[in-house]
Amino acid sequence: MEGRAQARHSSALDRLVQQAVLQVLQRQWDPTFSDSSYGFRPGRSAHQAVERAQGYIQAGYRWVVDLDLEKFFDRVNHDILMSRVAKRVSDRRVLKLIRSFLTAGVMENGLVGATDEGTPQGGPLSPLLSNLMLDDLDRELERRGLRFVRYADDSNVYVRSERAGQRVMAGLEAFLTGKLKLKVNEAKSAVAQPHTRKFLGFTFSNRAQVNGALRPRR
């Protein structure tokens, strides 16, 4: 019982420290993130992301590269992530602290297992660190001049043809695997017309391509 109480106390303290670090880093980092990124950012919402996607469809980009990352939050490479953090944080104490949050592991059946990949689920810092990691993806999409909307690990890229979509999908798979060591979930990803896919709980109807109608997922 004493061990469990100490673990709860340590967990509560970790969350408090993470929250304090988050408040400082989010103010510095968030303004530098892509305008097409909407997840876990102050003043941004899923509805705004859907509205932007809807705008691309209405503008004639009626094929979507629906990209789902396989177990993203479990597979973030710590070394790659920390290299991104180190470009923005010079204080070694803060870098050591963030690394310790990442590698702390989780407690199961009274045993703690250390981790060398993934971001702690539910940790206050995790969304910000995830956005930092995927900022590389955002910049690559912008470099290619593509129209996209990203909400956390859910990315939709809008193109004018299926052929263009297939080309974009192949390029992004190579980029994510080669540069970020992330894997595309082929079972959940596709190049398709928007009305056949769901995005953040919404389906774009066929009419959405004309008048912007939306159907919430049931």
Give the arrangement of secondary structure elements.
Blueprint: H1 2-29, H2 46-58, E1 63-68, H3 72-75, H4 78-86, H5 92-103, E2 106-108, E3 111-113, H6 126-143, E4 147-151, E5 154-159, H7 162-180, E6 190-192, E7 198-199, E8 202-204, H8 208-211, E9 214-216
Antiparallel strand pairs: 1-5, 1-6, 2-3, 4-5, 7-8, 8-9
Describe this structure in words.
With 218 residues, this protein is of the alpha+beta class. The chain has eight helices and nine strands. It has helices spanning 2-29, 46-58, 72-75, 78-86, 92-103, 126-143, 162-180, 208-211, and strands spanning 63-68, 106-108, 111-113, 147-151, 154-159, 190-192, 198-199, 202-204, 214-216. Strands 4-5-1-6 form a four-stranded antiparallel β-sheet, sandwiched between helices. Strands 7-8-9 form a three-stranded antiparallel β-sheet, with no helix packed on it. A hairpin with a 2-residue loop joins strand 7 (198-199) and strand 8. Helix 4 (78-86) crosses helix 6. The chain is elongated, with a radius of gyration of 19 Å. It starts with a helix and ends with a strand. The model is unreliable at 1-7, 106-114 and 208-213 (pLDDT under 50).
What proportion strand?
A: 15-25%
Radius of gyration: 19 Å
SS-based structural class? alpha+beta
Form type: elongated
Major beta sheet, strand line-up: 4-5-1-6
Mean pLDDT: 86
**Overall helicity:** 40-55%
Q: How many DSSP-defined strands?
A: 9
Distance between the termini: 44 Å
Q: From N to C, what is the helix and strand string?
A: HHEHHHEEHEEHEEEHE
Low-confidence stretches: 1-7, 106-114, 208-213
The number of helical elements comes to 8
Largest sheet: 4 strands, antiparallel
